[in-house]
Amino acid sequence: MTMVELAVGWLASHLWSRGQADPAEPAVEEQLRGLAGLVQAKLEDDPALASLQREAAGSPTPSAGTRRRIVQALEDAVWTDPHFGEALAATVQRLGPVIPRPAD
Length: 104
Hints:
The protein is an all-alpha fold. The chain has one domain. 73% of the residues lie in helices and 0% in strands.
């Protein structure tokens, strides 16, 4: 699983867990909010992010197509913006030891 795929998995699980009775522990939740904010700031007008957010409101998991589109959008963003890529990598590194790897 690539860095971007990990980030998308964690982002999706964060979006789907909002409002649940058993949130992640506060330090992990803060890191997940940071990841969501980083992605939101970079992809704010991207239809893939809008689809992911829309699906989080109405279905139990993202569709395969939406997951592919958001992975591609983030890969493109990492490719074209090295500073964003560094920030995403740092966020994934901070999350790695404290949160389970998302399911594929």
